[in-house]
Design goal:
Glutaredoxin, seven-stranded mixed beta sheet, single chain, Immunoglobulin-like, 380 residues, four-stranded mixed beta sheet, alpha+beta
Length: 380
């Protein structure tokens, strides 16, 4: 499942009081990199699919970025590549091979120096300083994990699955050590945004210990952009748990006509959240079409909410996939009104609602969807 990063990272609210209003990154590379391209990328503050991207070129070993963040902190990525290379960051399996490094970007001044981006030391910003402290402790363990992961990936690619599988037991104690270091850091640094970042990356609001871990953080960290977003999303998810009444909303159809979820009361409704750019969502459509054709005459309807921001892309995907059911959207991307109401953190996601407007199940796909619909719709 694609996990939508509603607010992947945010920083301490306390930082805002004295923070400068823009950021700068001054890079100095000692290797032979003149003419190469440096890419800076971080999440879009509008919650849309496309991230913010900027690029520049190395000249006399130096490069510079300037900009402005509209959130306290974002985890950005810096990548060094060939001048004309089109870097595809969706290819996660290539990360180990790339010359890249993450930076905890905020409206502050940063300095980067080293032989490569990957080997460079980054200074500047309170959050990055804490991030450096944690990474220094993690470094020997992450290097071991990276080596094993690269070996496993190489074996898998060459068809040696058993050999790759044999390496995985060696990774477990390393992963356990990494987790212990991160837990110790979180406990001993309650006033660091990095501690909240660790919670977000290690299960977030779905973690069984989220509440106790979150409450152990300082109020400043809890009231950061990310902290407030996590709390509001958790509340929304609890409100739309199975057994609770579905929340009503009104969005426009593809024809621009307002349609309310409550207008389908009296029917079983599969409320489906998706987007044209979500491949896992669209992979489900062929099966969903079969389900729809089977049950559409049995008091059943699918109401799809698109988290697109561009109408053309939305309509094109509907046509390409041959989707016959109700389609709604406000074209606000991840700030979609219904998605916020339902605490959507990842797509595809769906909710099964009974004729009385009560949520009776969620996250139904494939055989699980078939079985659940058969239970409530097939005549015994």
């Amino acid at each position: 499942m694609i996990k939508i990063t509603i607010a992947t990272l945010a920083s301490l609210a306390a930082l805002c009081a004295n923070a400068q209003q823009s950021f700068s990154i001054q890079g100095q590379l000692s290797g032979h990199h003149d003419g190469k391209k440096v890419l800076l990328q971080y999440p879009n503050p509008e919650g849309l699919k496309d991230p913010i991207k900027d690029s520049t070129y190395v000249k006399n070993g130096a490069f510079k970025f300037e900009g402005k963040l509209f959130k306290d902190v974002e985890q950005a990525i810096l990548i060094l590549s060939a001048p004309n290379e089109n870097v595809d960051l969706s290819e996660y399996w290539k990360y180990y091979e790339r010359d890249l490094q993450y930076i905890m970007l905020e409206n502050d001044s940063f300095q980067l120096s080293g032989p490569t981006i990957k080997q460079a030391h980054i200074t500047g910003g309170k959050v990055q300083t804490d991030f450096n402290l944690l990474n220094e402790q993690l470094k020997p363990w992450k290097e071991r994990m990276q080596l094993l992961s690269q070996q496993s990936l190489k074996l898998s690619r060459s068809g040696q699955e058993k050999a790759a599988e044999a390496l995985r037991p060696q990774m477990k104690p390393i992963a356990a050590e990494i987790e212990q270091i991160e837990n110790n850091f979180r406990i001993s640094h309650p006033d660091s945004f990095v501690s909240l970042y660790l919670i977000a990356m290690k299960g977030g609001i779905d973690h069984p210990d989220f509440e106790s871990q979150f409450n152990a953080l300082s109020l400043g960290v809890q009231n950061s952009d990310l902290g407030k977003k996590m709390v509001s999303t958790r509340k929304a998810i609890q409100i739309v748990a199975a057994g609770n009444r579905a929340l009503d909303f009104t969005l426009n159809s593809t024809q621009g006509q307002p349609v309310s979820l409550s207008s389908f009361k009296g029917k079983y409704v599969l409320l489906d959240f998706w987007a044209s750019w979500c491949s896992p969502c669209r992979d489900l459509h062929p099966h969903m079409i079969k389900v729809y054709e089977k049950y559409k005459s049995k008091n059943f309807e699918i109401v799809a909410v698109s988290m697109d921001s561009k109408k053309e892309a939305w309509l094109k995907a509907i046509k390409q996939d041959g989707i016959p059911w109700i389609q709604l959207s406000d074209l606000k991307g991840l700030k979609n009104q219904a998605a916020i109401l339902y605490g959507i953190t990842g797509i595809p996601q769906n909710f099964l609602i009974d004729p009385d407007g009560v949520i009776i199940d969620k996250e139904l796909k494939g055989e699980e969807l078939d079985k659940r619909l058969a239970e409530v719709l097939d005549v015994k």
